[in-house]
Specification:
The protein has helices at 2-15, 44-53, 64-67, 72-83, 94-105, 120-128, 141-151, 175-184, 206-209, 239-248, 250-253, 260-275, 277-295, 316-325, 355-366, and strands at 30-31, 87-91, 111-115, 132-136, 158-163, 188-192, 218-223, 233-237, 307-311, 328-329, 332-333, 344-348. With 369 residues, it is α/β, with parallel strands linked by helices. Helix 5 (94-105) packs across helix 10 (239-248). The radius of gyration is 21 Å and the shape is globular. Bound molecules: pyridoxal-5'-phosphate. Pyridoxal-5'-phosphate (PLP) binds at residues 93-95, 98, 119, 121, 163, 167, 192, 194-195, 223, 225, 233.
């Protein structure tokens, strides 16, 4: 019986201290869990743009190929101009983008080299593709080159796939080195810049952080749900890549497009990011958090991104619970999202946090150190 089998498996999850459940987040709680790095999800100009987008109706009513575009192309032009690429294509989520792009482009006879700490949506995209997949050690360029030299020669195409900023660690992929390796071995570099967009390189992302220009062998993916503050995903690249995806990418073709109000809000968000002040403010807050977290021995080195992994291992869930009781929302992250023994509080900061907020968080954590 399915029911009893599932009950048993849930019990097992509970016994292993891996049980997940949904929690309501009150509006007035001190939030260190959100990816709304620039607080654009609540920005009044973005909200006005969302309201304006409602003039097109609540939903988009279907896939763009069958039901047509509303304001979707305006956002795509904006993203392509923002990222400096020929074209862009939007999807309904960042997850759907990774799954849809990787499974369409990487085929039988191709080889994918994927960083060990890549996001689950990249892993699922690799699983759905017909390509062979090899995992290289996290940001380990020697290991990557070794795998390419040992295995790469018999494949049609070689794809190197990496997060730009790693979602659970906040560290930055060495895109300068990855680009060189991609060039040297005639490979294609796919960057999931979910956490770099709006944050690094004056908001333009991790590629810009390294002063690299978009090129024919780079495909940039991103999400509209983190620094942009809304919902959706995008891919930016050369015209042929986008044209091919429109024709073959299943999560694009067989799924209803984003509601026009969300699209309008995202266009406004990109305009605000381009003004530059918000990204600068975020960098200032990262500097402030670095100072306070260092004073409290929570980090050793300065962070460049707003994601701080405080690795408390088996104490993590107790600390998260204690924070919750003290009106601070910051959930614990466990296996399989992070490796066993690397359980952590994933603290993400944003432009709305104050020095007092950082200190309140530290004060609450202190007694567990
Ligand atoms: C690195 C990375 N890629 C992709 C995604 C998926 O994006 P979305 O939440 O828009 O589906 C996330 C976030 O969940 C992420 O952290």
């Amino acid at each position: 019986m399915l029911k009893s089998q599932l009950q048993k498996e849930i019990e097992n999850i509970k016994n292993n201290n891996l049980y997940r459940f949904l929690r309501k987040k009150d509006n007035n709680i001190l939030d260190f869990s959100s990816n709304d790095y620039l607080c654009l999800s609540k920005h009044p100009e973005v909200i006005d743009a969302v309201k304006d987008g409602l003039k097109y109706g609540f939903g988009s009513t279907g896939s763009r190929l069958t039901s047509g575009d509303i304001n979707h192309q305006i956002l795509e032009e904006k993203i392509a101009q923002f990222k400096g690429t020929e074209e862009a294509l939007i999807y309904s989520t960042g997850y759907a983008t990774n799954v849809g792009v990787i499974s369409a482009l990487c085929k039988k006879g191709d080889l994918i080299l994927s960083d060990k700490l890549n996001h689950a949506s990249i892993i699922d995209g690799c699983r759905l593709s017909k390509a062979d997949v090899l995992i290289y050690n996290h940001c380990d360029m020697d290991n990557l080159i070794h795998l390419i030299e040992e295995n790469g020669s018999s494949y049609n195409n070689l794809f190197i796939i990496t997060d730009g900023v790693f979602s659970m660690d906040g560290d930055i992929a060495p895109l300068d080195k990855l680009k060189k390796i991609a060039d040297e071995y005639n490979g294609i570099l796919i960057i999931d810049d979910a956490h770099g967009t709006g944050v690094l390189g004056n908001g333009k992302g991790t590629l810009k952080h390294f002063n690299l220009k978009p090129s024919d062998n780079i495909i940039q993916i991103g999400t509209l749900s983190k620094a942009v503050g809304g919902l959706g995903g995008f891919v930016c690249s050369i015209e042929e890549v986008i044209e091919y995806l429109i024709n073959t990418s299943r999560s694009f073709i067989y799924s209803t497009s984003l509601p026009p109000s969300v699209v309008s809000g995202c266009i406004k968000s990109f305009e605000l990011i381009e003004e530059g002040a918000l990204t600068k403010k975020l960098q200032k807050n990262i500097e402030l958090a670095n100072k306070i977290f260092k004073e409290q021995d929570l980090i050793e080195e300065d962070n460049l991104t707003p994601i701080y992994p405080f690795i408390f291992k088996e104490k993590t869930m107790d600390i998260a619970e204690h924070l919750m009781k003290n009106n601070i929302f910051c959930v614990g992250i466990r296996y399989p999202t992070v490796p066993r023994g690397m359980e952590r509080l994933r603290v993400s900061i944003n432009v709305g946090h104050s020095e007092g907020d950082f200190r309140a968080l530290c004060e609450c954590i202190k007694k567990f150190k």
